[in-house]
């Protein structure tokens, strides 16, 4: 019986220590791991003013604890906090940690950090630049929402998810590098990033959700990935500076207002052999609502001009046949083989490495005029005159242009 009581007492003591909160005269800490002696910086009763340096260790009852995290809401609404220095021992910054710190000008994110929660820097209007370390995989919901003066952010190669509203209303953001590991960009992620000028969306992205880049009014160019299948409602609505748009052949769904009020559009290039039906569920064709389509060139494969001239919405463009000069070429230096070259038996074969998937082949003459196209890895050169031609190979990783000789 005595042993049971002793064991129960020991458990109660451990539980008490585990939930122990203490302060060092400046900050409050909560013990989160007694075995490893880890503590988290806890929410304060009084906000710090000016500059703040969080130490690597904190001492309580002659025990040294390592500071490994910033607790939820720890510094939320600290409106006189200016600069924060975090120690290299920090691994987690929890939700709302610096929520609504409107005067926060700078904060370092140590290389030790591998997790940043939701709304961490929500409404930190004075924040101008920040670097996220390698190892972080997710930019959480509303993490940088309304950071209106944030003009530079460096994302690590490990980021695979950008959640909803992560950078909404970052009106000063001019450039952002989206890493190749990125697979998911959620809705409203870059809503109203009014200064963002150009963007390359990585090849692993296959969906652009609703309102993702809406009201990015300075966006002049955007490179869509070859694996893209879905463009959601108002995804690029009011991107009024966007001039040139190439829609990958892989896209099979474009929802209403996707490019609405993109009043700066000059050229749109598409590669479908059959015009994509873009009516919404009510039968309305408003994907380009607010755009004066007769003033916009639509470049299509010449063999299918008639089909586009009869298709809803597409027929309203200034339709032209594609030439080499208006196709975007991205070099693939290896892993693509065309054989035999010279072509002597009326058939050209295309071999790709295992990690590549063929989207489309196009054959051009040296004047840049398209002769034929196919989605198969074989090109019939029958009826072609002898001479030099150009073959454009479009894959899931980009495009390659190669010369061939037809005998």
In the CATH scheme, what's the topology name of the largest domain? Answer: Leucine-rich repeat, LRR (right-handed beta-alpha superhelix)
CATH class of the largest domain: Alpha Beta
Number of domains: 2
Oligomer: single chain
TL;DR?
This protein has 407 residues and is mainly beta.
Task: Walk me through this protein's architecture.
This protein is 5% helix and 31% strand. It is mostly beta strands and 407 residues long. It folds into two domains: 26-325, Leucine-rich repeat, LRR (right-handed beta-alpha superhelix) (Alpha-Beta Horseshoe), CATH 3.80.10.10; 329-406, Immunoglobulin-like. The strands form nine sheets. Strands 1, 2, 3, 5, 6, 8 and 10 form a seven-stranded mixed β-sheet that branches. It is elongated, with a radius of gyration of 28 Å.
Top keywords for this entry?
elongated, Leucine-rich repeat, LRR (right-handed beta-alpha superhelix), Immunoglobulin-like, four-stranded parallel sheet, 32 strands, mainly beta, 407 residues, seven-stranded mixed sheet
